[in-house]
Amino acid sequence: MAKKKLTAIVKIxxxxxxxxxxxxxxxxxxxxGVAIMDFVKQYNAATESQVGTIIPVEISIFEDRTFTFILKxxxxxxxxxxxxxxxxxxxxxxxxxxxxxxxADIEEVAKIKMPDLNAFDLEAAKQQxxxxxxxxxxxxx
Length: 141
Prior knowledge:
The chain is of the alpha+beta class. The strands form 2 sheets. The protein has a 3-stranded antiparallel sheet with strand order 1-2-3. The chain has a two-stranded parallel ribbon with strand order 4-5. Helix content is 36%, strand content 21%. It contains 5 helices and 5 strands. It folds into 2 domains: 4-69, CATH 3.30.1550.10; 74-138, CATH 1.10.10.250. A hairpin with a 4-residue loop joins strand 2 and strand 3 (67-71). One of its GO terms (cellular component) is cytosolic large ribosomal subunit. Keywords: Ribonucleoprotein, Ribosomal protein.
């Protein structure tokens, strides 16, 4: 069987288990002619165990309007907000402190994010997570 020709790659962030054909899914996939309901059903089935978390997805769309998708790990700020128990980060990072996370929380988030980070070891991944925490106005204790 011949390889299918790739026409587009679409990246969107959707709450796990709660995708609907409404925006952002419909507006992202509609122009490519993909069966939106098929994607929504498959995505919701694949993410039903993580309901409530935002899961980025990378959708590869082929010439014959079929698609495949790859689920990524949740964004680092989302994981850090959950650990700190916050709704959002600081309005003025560097000046106002929004909350704090422990070194153990940083390590846990780094382990979760490791497959999607461009870090060679856990220590480098922890540095990236610390930087994100700092830019959100979180203090690492």
